[in-house]
């Protein structure tokens, strides 16, 4: 059993003082009944708390998926650009301010798509651990079209073969060269494809296509492991991932 004000503060509704004020206004219900007393004890396994008519899922961990827009940086501070945290609604933003919510990996400023945020450090560690080889799938648009004939000279086939064999990616400024793990490339048309990689080196997808003499002109992450970006999320939208989706990530 835990006090109502403590639970709501933990869930990101503000400080204990803020939360007490919210409770006094009568917008909080416990199992459908208005509750205006901050020291009410809650059974976190059985009771349903709702604030402003929205049920609060009590969990030890918060797991969010965002469709990151372009021109937004995936870091906690940037003097120039908006950060992914600036796009969060107040409740989640407060969790970031209190040092709980963090990003699981990064995307470049000009890359769109699926990015995860959580307050669960163990989850993050598992997701970004280079040993786990969690797949990431990207939708890629390229500057130069490739021929799609699957003949021996077809550039499309050449890319597929090179990527699946494990590509040597040259040094890029201060970034060291590396041997990419075998990756799967599926062409959509002559200049767009899906690429699935199993690691997350700096600018990896852009550098892989640069290594075969092409250039990425648009990049969007569409999946991490078995978790796909919810197609109904517009750039900048965020939602909690469901327990089924969490299960997909842990598979
Ligand atoms: N590869 C890149 O080049 N950029 C990203 O943002 C992600 C993968």
CATH superfamily of the largest domain: Pseudouridine synthase I, catalytic domain, N-terminal subdomain
CATH architect. name of the largest domain:
2-Layer Sandwich
CATH topology of the largest domain: Alpha-Beta Plaits
Q: How many β-strand stretches? A: 19
CATH class of the largest domain: Alpha Beta
Please explain how this structure is put together.
With 251 residues, the protein is an alpha+beta fold. It folds into three domains: 2-55, RNA-binding S4 domain (Structural Genomics Hypothetical 15.5 Kd Protein In mrcA-pckA Intergenic Region, Chain A); 63-131 and 227-250, Pseudouridine synthase I, catalytic domain, N-terminal subdomain (Alpha-Beta Plaits, 2-Layer Sandwich); 136-224, 2-Layer Sandwich (Alpha-Beta Plaits), CATH 3.30.70. It is built from seven helices and 19 strands. The model has no long low-confidence stretch (mean pLDDT 92). The structure holds uracil. Uracil binds at residues 107-108, 111, 203-206, 219.
Write the layout of secondary structure elements.
Blueprint: E1 2-3, H1 4-10, H2 16-24, E2 28-30, E3 33-34, E4 41-42, E5 49-51, E6 54-56, E7 63-68, E8 72-73, E9 82-83, H3 90-97, E10 102-104, E11 111-118, H4 121-128, E12 136-142, H5 155-165, E13 168-169, E14 178-179, E15 184-189, E16 192-197, H6 204-211, E17 216-224, E18 227-228, E19 238-240, H7 243-250
Parallel strand pairs: 8-9, 11-17
Antiparallel strand pairs: 1-4, 2-3, 2-5, 5-6, 7-11, 7-19, 10-11, 12-16, 12-17, 13-14, 15-16, 17-18
The chain binds uracil (URA).
